[in-house]
Every structure is written in structure tokens, then in C-alpha cells.
Amino acid sequence: MTKLQLTKSRTNKKAQRLAGGLALTLAMTAVLSACSGSNEGGSKATGGASASAGGTEGPITISMMYDDNPSYPFNASWPVLEQFQKLANVKLDIQPTPDADYQNKLKIVLSSGSAPDLVSYVEHPVYMEFAQTGVFLPISDYLDKLPNLKKRLDQYGISEELDNWTLKDGKLYGLPFMFESAMYNTAPVIRVDLLKKHNLKTPTTMDELYETLKKLKEADPKGYPMANLNGALGLINLSGAAWGIGPAYNGFIFNPDAGKFEYAYTSDNYKQFVTFLSRLMKEGLADPEIFTSSTDQWKQKMATGQSVFTYTWISELGQTNADGKKNVDPDFELAPLPPIAGPGGVKGPSAQRINFAYVIPASAANKPNFDKLLEYVNWLYSDEAVNLGTWGIQDQTFVEKDGSRDFTDAVKNSGSIQKSLWDIGASNNNFTTVFTYDWFSKVLNNPLVDTLTTEANEKGWFPSVAKVPKLTSADKEEETMRSTTVHDFFLRGLEQFVYGKLSPETDWDGYVKEIDDKGVGKLLEIYNGTLQP
User: Which residues, other chains included, contact 1 with Cβ-Cβ below 8 Å and sequence gap of 6+?
Assistant: First the structure.
């Protein structure tokens, strides 16, 4: 599964990763250079058994904790799963665990000392909590036995993201789930038919956006030009880099010029952000439910013309435009824009390319089949495994001609390429370690994504990923004590500023002092302390 990217309940988060980046992931959700045709495991997803994955000996059994998502419940008979076991010469003893409580149950399993041989879908907070306890195998100590992984890391130039998964001891304790490159699949989106109708220019700055929304409000006084999906944090995730307040870790940004962490949500840039939103709200230019609309409510507002500007996934525009043409105007057209420039410049969302990790318990090193387990893990990063895990089965879900792949007509005409892949066990985060750009492009099936991604890379729209402080266990406990209080106060303050209960002009200094007293100052002390050798 992929992010078809970005902040809801656990189930909704995963579904939107699937929907938007296809979403981090996409998410996904970085730079588009197709995998360069290495042949670690064979070129076809249905090729013969891979010598590197098990040779001619009998299959070994590998136990595996599996994140079972209700969108595609585990099926032991999936053709892709059967091929995985056949080609890798393994028998997977899969332990499905419901997605809704997966991370909590994962903690229990990891604390028990009896974790299975391989654990899928370990999110960053859990990873960092347990990596420094000695529970996980230090993967970086075994890279000589994982040449396929090492090759991917070198090819993708992913060191910035990888640093966030590397502990202060310099070691990597997880097997990264990676996107080969970022995609410009989340963007500001506007009704370009209305811009044309009212002779308005496409906004390129926040000031121009304000003026455009004002003109559109005058044309339709009953509407609220700007709507929002994913709440306050979703809006900051998608537009924060342009405002200079993202990407952030718990609201903290590393300033490379100053060489230290700073708190974004007391900065002058953040003050400009809340002032802008407050102005939109006061003048009726933003939806009063800007932080609370459900997905269905947001879709209804956009598809009926009640709102005409938002931030969303480009790949999701097809259905909304179809509904708008049917119900509003034959010329109805929501179209994506380049990033709208703010104090942070012309920047889109962060190009995060490692969304989670697989881990191997340290105890596995003492088991007789440890070398075979590493062979299997190495094979997971081979072309053979990646192709099978993404494209599926040749001539059933994809065809290949002259070295180029495409999905079969049956898959493309099925109504959902992603659903067709799920039905056979492909595009599954538990089995697939890498999602390549060419695959993503074909799944999204939107030429605008490719065009804007090329432009994003050429013009530097993708900001750096948020730097994560390398916390010790004691640091983590202190962070946990304070971060929730700080976060809750920040969200409450944001709403009060936007809805006019607080004024950025008269109440700002009081807000800054109070949130600092609630823990920002101590957290800065902790985070900047991690930068010391």
C-alpha cells in the first residue's frame, strides 16, 4: 500500500497515504530518477527463483508481524504473496495484527522479548523509543550482507532522510521503507474557469491569493472561497514551507545558519500565517469550518462551488471535476498551481521519502537461520522483489514492452488501479520496501503530476525534510512530559487567533510567553542539547 500522504485517525491516515501520495508516504509522498535497471534479483516479477534469496535449499520459515489494514485485509492466498515465498525460497509465518491498534500492540510485542523474525510498519516514534534499548538489530553493522539495500540508498541519495533514522551512535536499526523520489502531488488548487470568467490572474504570492479570494467572494457572496481538508495540521503540512514554518518536528525547525533548533509557532513567520488566516476568516473568505470539515464535507463544498480554493492531492481532482461539471458548470475546472510564495519562498510540502521502517529483533542474530533471514531481507530490495511487490504479476496486472512497463488494460479500466493491485496482494506496505517513481506515475495516471514534479525539481520547490533530534531515553521521557501540553496550547492558540478570540496585534506577546512557560523553552534546551558531540 502507498499513500494514495497526511493526519487523522490511524485508519484514515493510512487510507490517505494511499490516496494522496498515492499520497508519502507520500506522501508519501523527492527527485525523479527511475531505478537504474540493476539486476540484483532478476528483471521480471514472475522470473525463476532468486539465487540470492535462498538458492536450491529448502525454504526457511520466517515469522513476521503484519499490519492488517481493513482496506485490504490479509489473504494468505494472494498471488503476489505466493510468488514472494516461491521466488525468495521462504515460508512466511505471518501474524496479522489489526491496523487500528497496531503501533500500541507493537510496543507490547517489542517489550516482551519474543518479537517475530521480522516486524513491518514501525513508525518513527516507536522506532526511536526502542532502537536505543538494544531490542533492534543494528542494520548498519550488516550492510556488507545487504548489498541491494546499500545500492538503493546510494542511488537514491537519501542521506538527509536516513539521518533521522540514525541514532546518536551513528547506527541504523531499521530497514527503510522508501520512495525513490518525491512527487509534486499535493498543491494549492483553484477554479481556473472562474479566474478566466472574471479575468483574474493566477495568484503567485499570498498577497495575490488574498486579492483573488476577495474578488471571487464579490462574485459569489454566499460562498467561502477557501476550504481546507485535514484540519489545522494538514493545512500547515501542505502550506507551511511557503510560510517558513515547516517542515517541522513537533513544531520545531532546525536553523542551519544558526546551527540550532527553533520553535516555529512563535516566529514572526507564524504570526504572519495566523494574521493571514484571521483576515480571511473575518472577511468571509475562508470556510468557518476550515479546521473541522470532514473529507465528505470538504468534497461537497468543492464539488458544488461553495468553495473554490484549497490545498489537496492533484490525483484526487478527477472525480471532483467530474462532479462539478455535472452539477455546477460544464466549464468547471479545479487545477493545481505551483506553490504560492510566502515568507519562506516558493516551497511545496516536504519531500519525505522514508515513512517507516521494518525491524529485525537483535535476538535474531543468535538463531541458526540468521544468514538466511538476511538473504531474504536483501532480496526484498532487489528489482525482482520490488517489481513484484509494486507492479504485481506480468501479463495479469502489468505488461512490459521494450523495457517499459504499464498496467494492463483490465487494471487501468477497473476504476481503481490501486484496488486491483490490492486484490492480488501488490502495493502492500508489509511486503514492498521500495516504491519507484515510474510505478507511482502510472498509478496516479495524471500527466500534471509529472509535469509539475519536473518543474519542482528544476526550481527547488521541495524543501528539506524536518530534522529530528536524536533523543536519549531520558530526553524522550522529558519530551513526552512536555510536548503534549505545548501542542495542545499551540492548537488552541491557533484557533483563537484565526477566529478572532485573540488578536495577533495585541495578544501575541502573551501567547509567546505562556507557550514558552508551558514547555517550549525546556524542549529547546533538550533538542539543542542533542546537537552537542
Answer: 14, 17, 18, 69, 71, 72, 418, 422, 427, 428, 429
